[in-house]
Design goal:
The protein is of the alpha/beta class and 322 residues long. 31% of the residues lie in helices and 24% in strands.
């Protein structure tokens, strides 16, 4: 199988590294308009790189779209027209969704959307232990100062600095899929937001959001690009039930009502963390969703998240105003 990774920034390089570790039998190609990135990836991974798919002389089976979100729909459409199955990173906007969904079905190709948190073992444990017959409350804060997201480049030079694909919107697109999957469809929402920082951005840098679910559960979700400490803090509770999580596997805790104490949850998988990333960014979930993509392509095993579901999440984010 031949796979082209389009976009050789940090995420593109991560996908190349993980695919080559998991599926060494696959042939990988790199695509990026920037010559410096092509040279870097050629040196790092010893793979052929080109500036566009037009320069590739071999048949490509799958494409991983790892460019800035505003370009995704055009690249996805082109890949589908070429007969390629598509894995795409978060889109953040719904441009081209209807057309690309129809095109994938017409050409009998697989269209797969990343939603990494749905593949985290901690999130899976939380969902499995949320009793659907009970109403739950949750309080969740996720934030990190925008210049610290990509410290090697100016925040105005990549997609999080753009209002349509801004940092708070990115955080909501990461978190809302698993929140809705766990607590059910959102019935109504209220929020307050403003700009607290002196960052040169034209969007609100923090949101405090109340989410009311049709299941009767409700929550407070705080997202921001303000906090100088990278934070992920979650509390979930109901009568005689309580879970907490601070973003890493070892911080997942559950209340034991018999012993009246919090106990750590021991997950089965060995946690993989790569030097240079924040401690709550683990490799496992990225590997899990790559495997899910190839399971979908090769064995028609349905993925945990679809473009149709993502369109609803994007509509919710638009309603929130991020």
């Amino acid at each position: 199988m031949t796979i082209a990774i389009i976009g050789l920034g940090s995420m593109g390089k991560r996908r190349i590294r993980l695919i080559s570790e998991m599926y060494p039998q696959y042939k990988l190609l790199g695509i990026d308009a920037r010559e410096d990135r092509r040279r870097e990836v050629e040196a790092m991974f010893s793979i052929f790189c080109a500036s566009s798919l037009d320069e590739i002389e071999v048949s490509v089976d799958c494409v991983f779209v790892c460019t800035s979100p505003l370009s995704h729909h055009v690249i996805i459409s082109d890949a589908l027209k070429r007969g390629c199955h598509v894995f795409t990173e978060l889109n953040l906007i719904a441009d081209g969704y209807d057309e690309n969904i129809k095109l994938a079905k017409k050409n009998q190709l697989k269209l797969f959307l990343s939603s990494t948190f749905l593949y985290r073992e901690e999130i899976r444990y939380i969902k499995e232990n949320i009793d659907g017959d009970k109403r739950w409350n949750y309080i969740y804060h996720v934030g990190q100062y925008l210049p610290d997201w990509h410290p090697w480049e100016n925040y105005k030079d990549f997609f999080l600095g753009d209002k349509r694909t801004n940092g708070c919107r990115e955080l909501l697109a990461i978190e809302l899929p698993w929140i809705v999957d766990t607590f059910g469809e959102v019935e109504s929402t209220n929020n307050i937001h403003d700009q607290m920082t002196e960052l040169k951005i034209d969007y609100a840098d923090n949101f405090m959001i109340q989410l009311n679910h049709k299941s009767g559960s409700k929550g407070i979700l705080v997202v921001d690009v303000v906090s100088p400490v990278a934070v992920r803090k979650l509390e979930i509770y109901s009568e005689k039930s309580y879970l907490s999580w601070n973003g890493t596997p070892e911080t997942l805790m559950e209340y034991d009502c018999n012993e009246d104490c919090l106990k750590p949850i021991s997950l089965q998988e060995n946690v993989e963390h790569r030097e240079g990333y924040r401690k709550f960014i683990t490799e496992n979930a990225y590997k899990n969703e790559i495997k899910a993509f190839f399971d979908y392509v090769l064995n028609d095993i349905k993925p945990s998240y679809t473009f149709e579901e993502d369109r609803k999440i994007i509509q919710l984010i638009d309603m929130i105003g991020a």
